[in-house]
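Researcher: Next entry in the queue.
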Amino acid sequence: MKRDEPWDEQWFTFEILDLILERDSLLRQFKKSNSGDDYKCYCKLRNKVQRTVKKDKSDYLSSQIEENKNNPKKLWQHLKGLGYNSKSKENCNLVLNIDGEMCYDNKKVADHINEFYTTVASTLVKKLPPAPNLFHVASEKFQSYYRDKGVKANSVSLKPVSTEFICKELKNLNASKSTGLDGIPARFLKDGHEVLCHPIGSIVNLSITSGIVPNAFKCARVKPLFKKNSRLEVGNYRPVSILIIASKILSSIHPAGGLFECQKSIVRPAVWFQR
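Model: Structure for this entry, 275 residues:
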């Protein structure tokens, strides 16, 4: 239940109100004590509040459906009143254990997650035993392997794409894709594919000919998704990068589409163009 949700809903009861007040009191107590036992008591009551709210809402909704099953207009008014017409998703506040203390500050939590994501790879590499340089790009074994395959340097090239290709890719976009940092939804690009294919095609072809991916195509909104175990540990979340929708057009150009020219195809899709 949202903290700012009005308490005058028809499904709202005094039992729920008492549970909410008791839950908030336990949360304040936990913030002062940082005790594990207080946190467990808070979580137990919080879950009870959620179950009670869910049950009372469900019972109220069932009664309204039964009462207004022959009056669709009134039934839909009740559904909208319960929030069933909303497609927006509120941002979730994370609480993490940072340096042995519970952190509730959104900025500190975001900085901690960012620091973990950007250093976890190098930290793991340092723990690995030193590897031989047999497969270094400058090693003789590495170069002889590709010479035997008949692969020459700079033998892979990427051809510019047609406006028809861009138009088709825009038209086939999944309209439910998450929106990136540019704020342009997939539905907008999909519906306007006949007009937008020209400017987007110019950007894509300029990127191909110059060998440079636009910075806007590389900037992503990173969302931490919980995996398992404790929600207080940053290592139990995995990062999901949400790029802008237009960048998906560029990433759709791969060998399977016949847009590569190479002497020996040793490149797998989704591996090229890592800038």
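Model: Residues 1-7, 83-91, 255-275 have pLDDT under 50 and may be disordered.
Researcher: Noted, moving on.
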